[in-house]
Structures are given as structure tokens and as C-alpha cells.
Amino acid sequence: MHIRKPQRLILSSLVLILGAATPACGGSLSRAQDALVVGDEAKAEVELRKALKSNSTHDEAARMLSILLADQGDALASSDPREAEQRFDEALDLDPSNEKARLGLARLLMKRGFEADARELLAFEGCTGCGRLEAMMLHESAVAAYQAGDIDTARQLFKKAFDQGKDPLDALGLATTYLASDPPDVLQAKAMLETAAPLVARGQHEAERLFRELRANLLMAVAAAGQSEMIDQIFNIRSAELLEEPEFELRFKVSQEQFRNGDSDPAIARITSLLEKSGQYLEPTQREVMEAALVVMFSARAAQHLQAGDEVGAAKDIAAGLKIDDDNSRLRLQQVLAIAANRLPLAFTKLEEAKKNGDRDKVEAILHALQTFEHLDAGSTAKALNSLEQAEALGPKLPEVHLARAYVLAEQRNEDLRKNELKDVRKNAGFDYPRGRVNQFPSALAHLAHAKALLAKQGVLFPFRGAGFDKRAADLEQALAFYPYEVDWYADKGGVIEIVAAGGRKEVEFKGPRWLKGTAIASPDNAAEIQVPNVGLVYLEYEGKELGVVVEENTRIQIQL
User: Fold this and answer.
1) What are the domain boundaries of the chain?
2) Which fold has domain 356-479?
3) CA distance 512 to 150
4) Which residues are registered as beta bridge partners of 555?
5) Distance CA 165, CA 320 (A)
């Protein structure tokens, strides 16, 4: 942040209004006045110093000489600040009420870093410009504190400066500190923008620039935080120059930010309103960009509706998008997915009409994943496996396909275990398997975790989603809640057991398939990993206890001891 105020110079005239010359002083004051009129400051200074020696002319001479010295100090301030400081100092000795000398000396002291001395100078009763200059000093100190990363000090200084000078730059400085908080204090930032707005006059270019910048930043912060109710309130905070601006571009950017952060409804409503109410004022290219963005948003929200099991909402968004772009191939494919929610055979038929490309393959893979669920619901595991193989061939990295695989694994027994191992598993697992069936529950949980991770990675703009994904995932998670260990996806060969010892150091002896054997040492600060390249039953022994853990492909099993 860099908020620098323009320096305001307080000018004093060299034209002095003199009283009548005193005869007793030999005309020194008159001669000084004459010298000033012709610009001979040196002679004027000599005559005024003479006049100081007379009691009758001392006070008037002191006042005039103080003014002369202050003007000289002002002229020297940039080229010879030390000499200027001496002139100001003497001017104040002669006349403490000389405001020009007081302000000039305070500025020089401030530049040299003597802020306390400068503030002491400015604390003079009756000095009309001292408060303004002190506010400027506070402002500069606040800027320095902000740039040094001391946000709290900067905020205090900006507040003192604003209380003293009521300058919009100080109010905007306060807004900046609130936006710099983590998380941003959007309510306080908004309040300071409201304070600053009526103070930013037309022609105050620096204040206007900063006001617009902070207002845009606040809008983005509020959009990112999902506080959509504040957005229209902030748009209504306007400086005099902003009153007549439609701000199409900023409104569009804020809507995009809202949508990226999952706040799709107000984002779509804002862009729709812009196009309907102000479309005739938009540039053709600007309108095209907004319409294209709106189509993408309708498509993405349709996918969100499908994910949540709301095929009616999805159909409405697809129709709204097609109204803008009737030839949009992705929207047409989404229609197929919406149909699949209740009429899967018809969805396959409609898909045949689509052009063959990567998007079509994704949709077909999702249809086969949905078909897998239907076969499992009907009790036909063999048919489910056949559909799953087709889904994995077309879209091996789709969340729906991994979710379908998780469902199948949860129904399949672990065929890698021998009879005696199955007996040991049931005895030493530390939990009861449902109906005593040792199915591939760890693998099912790993694929479920991977499906969720893939879904998050695809983001809110991914258009293709299988109907009811959220409910399917939640139902499986609930069905597998009996499994006591946290399971995550492991991408390499085999699996991993992660030993976590939160309560203290643990030594664990392990043995497993293909001569797997060793000791794992876990501590509160360091978990221990047991690599199991050849999956199967792994025995863990610790503190006289034995635990049997079935490790399956792609599983990372975390065990808390």
C-alpha cells in the first residue's frame, strides 16, 4: 500500500501592513517597509533588527522580522534545510504565533525523524494549520507502519489522523488495514468505505483511485467469503465520480468470483440481470463474453444439481443454457445425464446420437457406472462387474467410476486370504465384520476416498456428473462406518499401514505376506509406515497384544495405538 498525501503549503504574504512610523526610532520601520516594497530583504532585515532595540518599536519590528524570516526559511527549505530551520527557529522566538514558521519548522523536523519534537511544536493553541499538518504526519507514520507489516500500529495511526483531519485518505488507510487482517474484517472495511465515500471530492485523483481499488478488493473478498448479501450494499457505496458509472465489468468479475467459490445462485442472477436490464448498453464483445460465461455457469450448476440428486433443477439449468447457445455439445450431453437419473436405457439411446469424442466417452463411462449401481441394487454382482469394466475402460479417473468400484468391492469377499487367515482375521481384527463376511472393505473405503478427492479436484466448473453421487457416497460411508481405521487412497503398488502413536512411543513388530517382517517405531511426532508391496494379512504385535490387519491394493490404513 502507498497512500501519500499531496503537501499543502500555507502561504503568507510579504506585503506587510504597518502602523504609523514612530519618530523616536529614526524611521527604521519605515525604511524596512520601503526596502520590502522594492524587494531588498537584506536591507529590510538590517532595519528591522535596529528597530528591535527600541522599546517603542520592538513588538512591531519583531512581528515583521518574524514574517520575513519565515518567508526566507520557506524559500530555503528544499535547498538548505539546516539554514531554513535556523530562520524558522528565530522567527518563532520573535513571534510564537507565526504559523508559517511553526509549520515550516515542524515539517523539517519531521523529515529528519524528530516526530516527537514536531508534534510538540504543533501542539500550540490557536494554530489553525497545525492540526492538518499533524494529521499528515500521522498519516505518513501509518503508511510506514503498514509497509513494515505492523498492521495494528498502522490502524491506530490512521484512526488518529482521521479523527484530527477528516481526510478520506486516512479513512481509506483504515479500510486497507481491515482488509489486510486474516481473515479480512469486511464489516469494518465496509464501514470505512462508507465513511470515505462522501469525503472524496471530484478531482481528488489519488483518493478516487484508492477508493475504487479498495472497493473492488472488498467486493472480491466478500464474494470469496460467500457473503453475497453484502455485495449489493458495497456496490451502493459510491464516490461522487462513481455515481453515474454502471460498472459492468466489475459486476461481471464479482459474479465470476462468487461462482468460483460455490455461490452459484446469486452469481447467475447478477449476470442474468445485467444482460436483461442493461444488455443494450453493453459492447457486443462484452455481451458475448457474459453470455458465454453464463452458459458455463448454467452447465456447472446443472452438474451440481445432478450430484445432489435434483434432476429437475438440472433440467431447468440445461434448458436455460441452451436458450443462449442451442448448439452447445456439453449441454446436450448433460441432457443425457439428466435423463439417466430415471431412465437409464433411454439415456444410452440418446447418447448414440452424440458425436464421438472425449466428452462423450466420459458421459458413457458415467452411464455404465450408474448401470453398475442398478445391477447391485438388483442383486446381480456379475452384471455389475461387467458394467464396471466398461466404465473403467472409458473413464478410469472419473469419481463416479471409483465410487462404483467401491460399491462392488464392498460386496466382494477377499479371495487373497486362505481359510486359516480368514479365521485369524475374525479373531484378531479388533472389530466384528458384518455377518462375519471379510469383504474388501479397506479397498472400498480407499476408492470412496479417491472418488471424493477426484470430485474436489475437478472443481465447480466440471460439467459431467452422475445423478445422486452425494447420496451414494454418503450411504456407502455409513454402511462402512463399522471399520475402525481411517483409510485413504494409495497410488503405488500394494498398500501401506501407518502407525500413529499419539500417547507415547510404540514399538510394533510386524510380519506379513512374502516374508514381510520388521519393527516399526512410532512416536507422537513421527508416524511409522509399514510398506506392504504384496497385499494380504499383516500381523502387528505391541505391548503383548496382537492385531490382524488386512491390507489390500491401493489402501493406506492409519492405525491409532
Assistant:
1) 1-128, 356-479, 489-560
2) 1.25.40
3) 57
4) 489
5) 54
What whole-number distance in Å separates Cα of residue 363 and Cα of residue 36? Answer: 93
> In this structure, are residues 399 and 520 in contact, taking their beta carbons and an 8 Å threshold?
no
pTM: 0.72
Fold entry, domain 489-560:
Immunoglobulin-like (2.60.40)
Q: What is the pLDDT of residue 244?
A: 85
> Are 1-128 and 489-560 the same fold in CATH?
no
Percent of residues, the chain, with pLDDT higher than 90: 63
Dump pLDDT digits (tens) for 178-213.
999 999 999 999 999 999 999 999 999 999 999 999
Return the C-alpha cell found at 118: 514536531
Residue 380, classed as helix, strand or coil, is coil
Q: Report the C-alpha gap between 406 and 440 in whole angstroms.
A: 9
> Above 60 in pLDDT, residue 427?
yes
The reported pLDDT for the residue numbered 130 is: 65
Q: What is the pLDDT of residue 211?
A: 96
Average pLDDT over every residue of 101-121: 77
Contacts of 492 (CB under 8 A, 6+ apart): none
Does 1-128 carry CATH code 1.25.40? Answer: yes
Span 403-424, average pLDDT: 93
Q: CA 447 to CA 402: how far, in whole Å? A: 5
The grid coordinates of residue 70 equal: 519565515
Residues ≥6 apart with Cβ < 8 Å to 91: 65, 66, 67, 69, 70, 73, 98, 100, 101
Q: How far apart are CA 124 and CA 96, in angstroms?
A: 9
Q: Please check the confidence at residue 15 and state whether its pLDDT lies above 50.
A: no
Whole-number Å distance between alpha carbons of 551 and 561: 17
Task: Give the SS3 label for residue 206.
Answer: helix
Compute the distance between CA of residue 284 and CA of residue 29 in angstroms, rounded to an integer: 76
* Position 41 pLDDT exceeds 70: yes
Strand partners of residue 487: 557
Q: Which residues contact 90 (CB under 8 A, 6 or more apart)?
A: 66, 69
